[in-house]
Amino acid sequence: MAALQLRRFRQISHFLPYYFPGYIYGSSRRNNGLYALPDTFHSVSCPHIADVAKENCFHSRRFSTLSRKKHKSLNEDGFLSFIASSLDKVEGPSHHWLNKSEDSKEILKRDGVFLVLAGAFLEEPSNESVIMIKNVKALHQRYPTVHVMGFQSCKSIFSDAFIVPLLQSMMREFITFPILLSTNNFPEVLKGACYIICEGFKRPQIFYEKDVDIGFIDKVIKELNLQQHNDKSVNKLQSSWVKPIHVIPEPYCCSSLQNLFLYFPGCIAVDESNERLFLSDSNHHRIIVSNGSGEILESIGASPGFEDGEFQSAKLTRPAASFYHSAENCLYFVDSENHAIRRADMERRVVETLHPTCNINNKGHSLWSWFVDKFWPRNDAVTKSDTYDSETFLYPWHMMKSVDNDLYVFTRSLQTLWIMDLASGAIKDVVRGFPKIWEICGPMIQEKSALLNKMPLEWLQQQVGPNCPLEGVQYASLMSSVATFQDHVVVCDTVGQRLLKLDKTSGSVSNFQFSNFGILGRPYWCLYSLERVYALGDAQSSCRIDHMQQFSLLPGRIDIQLIVDIPEDTVLVEPIKEDYVWFQARGTATVVPEAKKKEESLEKVGLAQQWYDELDDLAALTPEEKLSTEKEDMISDGEVQDGRICIKSAINTSPGTCEVIISAAIYLKLKILSTSIDDDREKYASRIAHHLSNKSGRSRKDQCLQQLLTSNADARDLIFMKPLNVKLLFDCLNHPKAKNSKDIILTNSSVDVNVTLT
């Protein structure tokens, strides 16, 4: 009988924690592995949690139900209730959301698993808080359905002196989850930076220790996540072949800077023999290759993601440090947010993955394999292992090649070192802690960091933020952002969004000037990716249409002349060329190829109009007529007059409806109104912020302005991009009838479209 009672008691104790809120986990490193609990607390046995806690040196405790009147439950009248009440509005009397768009509906959900990073993890950044941010980001990647957010209590949530450093930290750490700022204090919860995990704002589990192992948090979230999905029968009704497209989020609060030519240029490498620079334009997810004079030669990376392939189609996510291997003619680089090391073959123009060693893409040769990989790209870099631990390869940033032909890969804070075999990509050893790392590669770090000694101290402090310098060498976290090139030292300015050039002889610092922007192609954030076109059914719904106009014309050839007025206070960086403009025709229209391809057969579009297209081909122009219209078909190269750009094109149409989309990337600079930047510094920064934050809220414009003013950069030298998107709709009637019913009368039309870029 006693044995039966004991077994019943164990079964009851297994389920008791699920019916009472308020798990709090503390470190077992004090009081012989246990906290000295007050009389109002009683320990509770929880076998499945206790086993995990034992493995990770943690013990659980909860608020006793006998003391609920004295100690209020967190989810009833405390911290979680406040978060739940603030989800509906971006701003309120005592709260303000950062990194949350006003039209975002995902955060409004109140069910599911929540992971909250609470405490002064941004206001007072340190190595410990940076590690916690990395852990939360990694868990968010692993569990996209978990609602991740941050919470920070502050005295003033609208002060520029408080907001701007936060924005700089969020851009530097690439924080994509929303953060709630509040003037309210919750001393019963926020005793320090901590993780809070709960399901539907119930039964919170709190982890106070900053150095808590990520594997333990991973196990708790996994258990709650599996329990939630098992409880929802609706998931069992989903079709087995439907796979949601993974959207890679980006920091929303800093997106105003996205249209700058450089957006957090993080790292630089050089190829002295071929006079090439490799600049990691990190937050644009690409690597820009240029020569010593600034002419852009290549652009590696098309959009955020994780996919190998040719330079124009490969996907990266926040590339960082790199080095050029001259013997292989390859560029090895860190793909930070993908937790990978990639290799760019400069001869074949192909990106490959060195680590993880498993074949990420593993593309088959069948048509079905190509279709699946193209429309549902895999992101297995993080989820390849069952659990996380302290040895997991997460968020690398720096990279150097050792004399033993190994790769030294570091985190940005230089707290973790992975020693990797260059040939196989296998990790040979993991070293934790800066003192141990300094013993292994201290001279190499010091040699790289010594190049920064000639830069102004104030500028260096801006780059690293309020973090204290590491022991042994100052500003070592910037070692991958500086390199020697010929008679200069090139340095990345992640605050001023530019590349600087320091003359070794004179010590003067100037901006590195770039050209040939057309090779960068169409910016990924202006249009939907290919897989979203088919999933959502509208390729243009995410981008702003600057001008839309409808025409009713006869079928045949239609010449289009687009006149674009750029803003009055701006000037073109360089003339518009064919590489800057893209045309797309849908329906019963096809774009007339450029002159050198005219003698080839025209491309067929629209199966329903194939018969009409074949009739148009029978009545092709004579060679004399082709020569007479050859000049008209070409897009104007650099035709600019009085702040106006002329873009020409032509289409062939058949009876029916069609649309033509004309897109262009127009690179501009501010028109210089005076020669004294000291007097007009804020004025120029305000003009840049106006162009970058156009049609956004005033608060975002003010935040953008403050970010620009944080740097000492001359706003007149900043290059920014204005996207142009024009949609033309055509309703084409039937062909006019000739006297002979077998003949078709061909018509030529022309339209002039005037567009003003605001």
Explain this structure to me?
It comes from Daucus carota subsp. sativus (Carrot). InterPro entries: 6-blade_b-propeller_TolB-like. This is NHL domain-containing protein. The protein is of the alpha+beta class. It folds into four domains: 2-67, no CATH class; 74-233, Glutaredoxin; 263-380 and 387-519, Neuraminidase (6 Propeller); 546-756, no CATH class. The chain is built from 15 helices and 36 strands. The strands form seven sheets. The chain has a nine-stranded mixed beta sheet. Strands 29, 30, 31, 32, 33, 34, 35 and 36 form an eight-stranded mixed beta sheet that branches. Strands 15-20-19-18-17 form a five-stranded antiparallel beta sheet, with no helix packed on it. Strand 22 (406-410) and strand 23 form a beta hairpin. The longest helix is centred in the first third of the chain and has 18 residues, at 214-231.
